[in-house]
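Human: Cast an eye over this sequence-structure pair and say how the chain folds.
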Amino acid sequence: MGWALLGASVGASAFFFIKVRMLLDSSTGWYYSWFIGWSDALQAERERHMKNSINLETATWEATQAIYKLDKSFIGTEHYIGVGYFWHSAYKFYLRDASYSKRKRVHKKLLRAGLQVDGRSPAHAQIIADVLKLKVEE
């Protein structure tokens, strides 16, 4: 389960990487996966993470509305996916343009702090500021 990353300069702005990743496969035991070339490694990792992604920009209007409705039902739970609006109107200028993952992190931190996700307080402002890495006015 270790990572080894070896690199050597091939030019002024290019690097050649050999990435060795040790994985546990349930049927064959330990095996090594070699990615040669940094672009190959990045592409392989990207493809691995993109398998279950949904691009909402390509979804139909009806599908987008169904996803918003579903996510609204998840507000206040650990199942929130970052699409629906949950915040107090005082924070709308900060959170409406935030990425889904940042919204999800804010939501999760508010829940773990025992705060109402649609509330307003200095604690809410601090959590939002910490996640978004900007100054949030209370």
